[in-house]
Design goal:
Blueprint: H1 7-40, H2 45-57, E1 62-66, H3 69-83, E2 88-90, H4 93-96, E3 109-114, H5 123-131, E4 136-140, H6 146-150, E5 153-156, H7 172-192, H8 196-202, H9 207-211, E6 227-229, H10 234-244, E7 248-252, E8 258-263, H11 264-269, H12 280-283, E9 285-286, E10 290-292, H13 297-311, E11 315-319, E12 330-333, H14 334-339, H15 346-350
Parallel strand pairs: 1-2, 1-3, 3-4, 4-5, 6-7, 10-11
Antiparallel strand pairs: 7-8, 8-9, 11-12
Helix pairs in contact: 1-7, 2-7, 3-7
């Protein structure tokens, strides 16, 4: 019997070994992150709350720093802080020793990352924080380290091996730092009462930001609002529709509330020789759909798009949030949403 293995068998073994190595890394790192969650209910909980208190009380910025792989993680944590409502920046520890310490000022709070807690490049930042009474939060792997002893709040990473088979390359430790940084940012977001409106302000160019645009950001009001009274002649109603160029006109009752709407479709359905002699109330569709001004524009677009498939809805009249049956304050056209890059709400799209 031949002992020669086929190339296919060798390749299969190699793929199997590769996937096993990848699965091992993911298992080790997932267990480490799970250990952080468990630790929050035990010894890590009090210092975590202390860290949030320090960050929340800071009048300036959250300054995050670390060296090497910890530095890359620190940069990402600073970016997450900044995007969730906490002014933040990353300071490179080596550059800090050559003038960038000036970026760290009274009123700031500093977060330093170091698995060993003995990273030499962090020494000047630690000294600067102690000298000017700047709150210092440490994310470390060793509670007895120099960094841990100097910090006001010490977040000690659970003792888990690195996923690197040699136990040398920062893998598990940096994953835990990243997860803990995200936990800090989101907990602080919650403490600050950070809203979706504020998120949209900080992410105007992103797809998520466009999904968080409000109706109040886009709707037309004032002279652009097409409205007539119920007893307006259809001749004058058509003039108003034509002048506002939205393909519809709202019909209001004696109290100024929206009683109905007249669209191009209504005109076609009521086309007759005496159309121009009739009144708006005779042609309108009663009780039209309205939308609150604080609603998401994506919700409005989704409703119009779904409705459009059977009813030809291209506009929604806008009302105040606390007055659904009050007078219309604006109108939103489907093109207003599309020009702003608003995408139809995913929940509406999934229900089509």
């Amino acid at each position: 019997m031949s002992n020669v293995r086929t190339a296919s068998a060798v390749k299969t073994d190699r793929v199997s070994t590769t996937l096993a190595a990848a699965a091992r890394v993911l298992k080790i790192e997932a267990d480490a992150v799970k250990a952080i969650e468990t630790a929050l209910g035990d010894g890590l909980g009090a210092p975590f709350e202390r860290a949030i208190d320090l960050l929340f009380a800071a009048k300036g910025r959250a300054v995050v720093s670390g060296m090497g792989k910890s530095g890359h993680v620190a940069r990402k944590i600073a970016a997450t802080f900044a995007s969730t409502g906490t002014p933040a920046l990353f300071v490179h520890p080596a550059e800090a020793s050559h003038g960038d310490l000036g970026m760290i000022a009274a009123g700031d709070a500093v977060v330093l990352l170091s698995n060993s807690g003995e990273t030499a490049e962090l020494a000047d930042i630690i000294t600067h924080c102690r000298r000017f009474a700047i709150p210092l939060i440490a994310i470390v792997g060793r509670p007895e380290s120099t960094l841990a002893r100097a910090a006001d709040a010490v977040l000690v990473l659970p003792n888990h091996p690195e996923a690197c088979p040699m136990g040398l390359a920062p893998t598990t430790s940096t994953t835990m730092m990243l997860a803990l940084g995200d936990a800090l940012a989101v907990a602080l977001l919650d403490r600050n009462g950070f809203s979706s409106e504020r998120f949209q302000e900080l992410h105007p160019g992103g797809r998520l930001g466009r999904k968080l645009v409000r109706v109040s950001d886009l709707f037309r009001t004032g002279e652009a609002l097409p409205l007539v009274a119920e007893d307006t002649s259809m001749a004058d109603t058509l003039i108003e529709m034509t002048r506002k160029s939205l393909g519809c006109v709202g019909v209001t009752d004696k109290r100024g509330r929206l009683a109905g709407i007249i669209t191009d479709g209504d005109l076609r359905r009521h086309m007759s020789r005496d159309l121009l002699d009739r009144r708006a109330r005779d042609v309108m569709t009663a009780n039209p759909k309205t939308i609150a001004k604080s609603s998401l524009a994506s919700d409005a677009l989704g409703w119009m798009t779904v409705a459009n498939s059977g009813r030809g809805i291209t506009s929604l009249f806008v009302v105040d949030d606390n007055s659904a049956d009050g007078p219309p304050i604006g109108i939103l056209h489907v093109h207003d949403c599309l020009r702003a890059g608003v995408d139809m709400d995913a929940r509406t799209r999934d229900n089509e």
